[in-house]
Amino acid sequence: MRRPVLLVVAHGSRDPRHAATVHALVRRVRALRPGLRVETGFLDFNIPSVTGVLESLDAEGVRDVVALPLLLTRAFHAKADIPAVLAEAPPRLRIRQAEVLGPSPLLLTALERRLYEAGLTPADKSSTGVVLASAGSSDPEAIAVIAAIAREWRHTGWCAVRPAFASASLPRTEQAVRELRALGCARVAVAPYVLAPGFLPDRIARGAADADVLADVLGPSPEVARLLLDRYDAARVPVLAAVGA
Fold first, then answer.
1. What is the rounded CA–CA span in Å between residue 69 and residue 56?
2. Is this model's pTM higher than 0.90 or not?
């Protein structure tokens, strides 16, 4: 029995860095699991579209697909946009939507990797406050998840961790930076909790102007690639059971 195709569903962006980062991440996933077919589809702005990929798979005779939202929180896109697009897929395709990527300990490890790549060391943790800067959402569930991640991350040894949002919610990155300064942290670092560059990550970067350290986006980090496969595997089991594997 062939394994279901993994379809990575990305939002898309007018910023070419976004698609380039998504494709780099998918290449890393393929390298981690040779033999697994991994496709990429975009909801907007970029090609191929999710609908186009699904139609092509159906035309090839593929029957089982795991659609994995390239999202860090379960907000509007995961709850509404993606299910709506998948519902329009050719009826012969059996599609299971995997869980979004966050929260996960692997993402915390990836965040720390990016901070260390930006110049911090583990010895700096106790004197460094970190802004966990996400894109933001109007969904209260997504905002609560970011706040919970910040609380969990604080217990790994950082001076303090504060959530911030580039849109829809407060505080903004620059406000969180000032708050950490006021708490007395010797240095302040901003860790973008976003997967790829674009408009909102650029806003996070501008808000980090007064921070000591600005980490890169999560991008194609090894931890994120591993997490995609973990989410695929968790969704794949019911798919295979449904077809008698």
1. 19
2. yes
